[in-house]
Design a protein that fits this description.
- The chain is an all-alpha fold.
- The chain contains 18 helices and no strands.
- It is globular.
């Protein structure tokens, strides 16, 4: 057994978990900063452009969370469990299976969104210039879906081995590609001004460059898992090993994003300014997902390795430690946003109505972000354990309460965005509470433990 795997099984929990999470957190802070900058530049194009990109955000994040935290979690979990059990050759064979799954999922996203984008964004409330901006951005992003899926899948392969440094280094190294987006958005020298299309082109260039680096590392032989002609022998059992965690995780991703899509549709009935204000506010909520992923990817690997090695008690201690850290960080962000909403909202817009609606959202929903972080951390830990029933039920409870409750409130109390936001906050609290209570009660405890 290599030194890295042995450390996951025997090292002190908190220091080992923090050492694994630290590169991911640094990486994801950089990603969040770059995402904020992109929205900042798009905001210069006006409310229609900002609303258009905002309305695409749930679908873009659905693809992101499916490829990185959903199916990517299934990939990392399968590889971690194989390495923890001492099956290194099987871990290498899982790489080819993961790539096939990634390309299949990417093709599905491209076909569905290119064919139905206008209807989807229209149903979410985008009209006129906002709808055209949404389509211009979305068509480029989803045409390049394969780059996003390969980037996140190959990064998950590498994280599953316990190597968190290389994915972080690639994200930081490729960051300047996204920082070049203003040249494509507004034009520079011989480059014409492409508007929101230019922002999307920069995103796809970033993922393409990163995916090539990950692929080169895996085929070079320097990774614990290797991709070669000998490992490209496909077997149903290995597809099942990834999909038994990845497929339920995709359902969870759909629930999370469907919640925001339905709520966006409710808010869209209040007009473009409401849609833009809510979109800017909910962007901060969405950014909790990649932030918690910094802890979550470490949880998937560490919990999965310990489960594979027959150490479930230690795996649960790892889960609770990571969940406490994630909840603390997300609650701090939520409270800061609630107390000082203008610090976040002012980055994207100066429209008084946009700022007012965004501030209302952050003051009401921000304090519930800690519950969101708690639930997300346990979701990632459950991926490592291969037990996803309660994360799915918790996500479903959030969907029903947020979307159904928001609709009921509007019918009973009339047009009141504040009431809808209160329901959103309650739904986040329910999500975190359901999954944490379930795991405390032994939701993924086997009947006989070694």
């Amino acid at each position: 057994m290599d030194t890295r795997t042995r450390r996951l099984l025997e090292g002190p929990i908190a220091p080992t978990l923090l050492a694994l999470a630290a590169p991911n957190v640094v990486m994801l802070v950089a990603q969040v900063a770059i995402s904020v900058l992109e929205a900042y530049f798009v905001g210069w194009l006006g409310a229609d452009a900002l609303a258009g990109v905002s309305v695409t955000f749930p679908l873009v994040m659905l693809m992101q969370t499916m490829s990185a935290g959903g199916m990517g979690g299934g990939v990392a979990s399968a590889i971690a469990r194989a390495l923890g059990a001492g099956r290194a050759a099987e871990a290498s064979r899982l790489v080819g299976h993961a790539i096939v799954i990634a390309l299949t999922m990417a093709a599905a996203f491209t076909i569905v969104v290119l064919a139905g984008g206008r209807a989807i964004y229209g149903a979410m409330g985008a009209q006129g210039g906002a709808l055209e901006a949404a389509l211009a951005y979305s068509n480029v992003i989803f045409t390049g879906a394969a780059a996003v899926w390969l980037f996140n899948t190959l990064a998950s392969v590498i994280r599953g081995t316990g190597n968190m440094v290389l994915p972080a280094a690639v994200v930081l190294g490729a960051g300047p590609v996204l920082l070049a987006s203003p040249a494509l958005i507004f034009g520079w020298g011989p480059i014409p001004a492409l508007g929101v299309t230019g922002a999307a082109l920069a995103v796809i260039a970033y993922y393409t460059a990163g995916a090539l680096v990950f692929f080169a590392f895996i085929v070079s032989g320097r990774s614990l898992v290797r991709l070669s002609g000998e490992t490209l022998r496909f077997e149903r059992r290995l597809f099942r090993d990834i999909l038994r965690v990845g497929a339920p995780s995709l359902v969870n991703n759909v629930q999370t994003n469907l919640t925001v899509v339905l709520l966006t549709a409710l808010v869209g009935s209040f007009g473009t300014f409401a849609l833009a204000g809510y979109g800017v506010g909910v962007r901060l909520e969405y950014l909790q997902i990649p932030l918690v992923f910094g802890f979550g990817s470490a949880l998937v690997t560490m919990v999965g390795t310990n489960i594979g090695a027959g150490q479930p008690k230690r795996a649960r201690r790892v889960a609770w430690t990571g969940a406490a850290l994630a909840a603390g960080v997300t609650e701090l962000i939520g409270l800061s946003a609630a107390l000082f909403p203008s610090h976040w909202l002012g980055l994207f817009s100066a429209e008084p109505e946009v700022l007012q609606i965004g501030a209302t959202y952050l003051r009401i929903v921000g304090p519930a972000y800690g519950f969101f972080g708690l639930g997300l951390a346990f979701y990632f830990a459950s991926q490592g354990a291969g037990r996803l029933l309660w994360p799915l039920l918790a996500g479903l409870s959030r969907l029903v309460v947020a979307a159904g409750g928001g609709w009921i409130v509007l019918r009973l109390l009339g047009p009141s965005l504040a009431s809808v936001f209160v329901v959103m906050a309650l739904a986040l609290a329910l999500f975190g509470t359901v999954i944490s209570v379930a795991i405390y009660q032994g939701a993924w405890r086997p009947q006989r433990e070694s």
